[in-house]
Amino acid sequence: MAANSSSPAFENFRLFGSAEDEKPNPGLSLGFLDSQQPPLPPPPPCLEVLSSEVCSSVKYNVEPVTVGEITMFKGRVSTQEVFSLSNSDLVPGKYEGGLKLWEGALDLVKALCGEVENGHLSFAGKRVLELGCGHGLPGIYACLEDAAAVHFQDFNAEVLRYLTIPNVTANLTKKAALPTNPTESDAGSAARYFAGDWSEMHKILPFASDDKEKLSENFNGYDIVLMAETVYSLSTLKTLYKLITQCLSRPHGVVYMAGKKHYFGVGGGTRRFLSVLEKEGEMVSKLIAEVADGSSNVREVWKISLK
């Protein structure tokens, strides 16, 4: 599906919306759109973060959040304490917003609940990957629905150590948690955590490959890929698409994507990502939810599958 070319005016519109209704950061730099600005720093190295590496030096506060008919827990940590950033939603190339709970994550959990209730989706026994996880609520929901393996990925290892891992623990406390840090013979039967840039992530994810011949056949990758608010930057859409093709199980893998229809100021959006899909011609998409509450840009949840 092609991107909508008739975007509304940019004036008086917030760049990013937040599920926590925080005020926008007037100092947020969009210098990465300016060719006169210096290039972004090199991305952090890709690595697996073990659950034992959870950091307790920063205060982690937890509070309930209701999504549809279920109650989950969301943690809150300070970007100032973790990254020495004051009230920053995003610093391109350094911090990609993982400590903030974005609206799309809640939209995605609600949509997944509906898909499960309607019999259109089952997580039981499935391999699940959440890209750009932050709090990890969609991946946590997959855990609660008896997924065999749930792998959480975020750009920043600090997000995983200070927020994602504690949040997974908080949400699974009353349920038998998935085993962690498996041996090689038990690879995948666990909640695991991976940090780094999407361009290199296929090298360390257990169920990913860049072997074109392997990917053209029945590929035993991730059955379900989840992502919320990952399509905000126009410059990363092709990289994200490529990673999905390197991860998605064939021929029946599915992607659930939540995000804003347009992210004004940075060029991304769900429709821009769908235009990438249309150009590549390998996948089909279906709109399963739309949220237009008047508090932010129109938000959407899409189901994407291979043709």
TrEMBL record:
Q: Name one GO cellular component term.
A: nucleus
Q: What is its EC number?
A: 2.1.1.85
Tell me one GO molecular function of this protein: protein-L-histidine N-tele-methyltransferase activity
Record region (Disordered): 15-36
SUPFAM superfamilies (UniProt xref):
S-adenosyl-L-methionine-dependent methyltransferases
- Protein name as it appears in the record: protein-histidine N-methyltransferase
Q: Which UniProt keywords apply?
A: Cytoplasm, Methyltransferase, Nucleus, S-adenosyl-L-methionine, Transferase
Where does the UniProt annotation locate this protein?
Answer: Cytoplasm; Nucleus
What domain of life does the UniProt record list for this protein's source?
Answer: Eukaryota
Hey, which family's this protein in? Belongs to the methyltransferase superfamily. METTL18 family.
Listed GO biological process terms? methylation
Name the enzyme's class.
Answer: transferase
Looking up InterPro entries in the UniProt record yields: Methyltransf_16, SAM-dependent_MTases_sf
What organism is recorded for this protein?
Cucurbita maxima
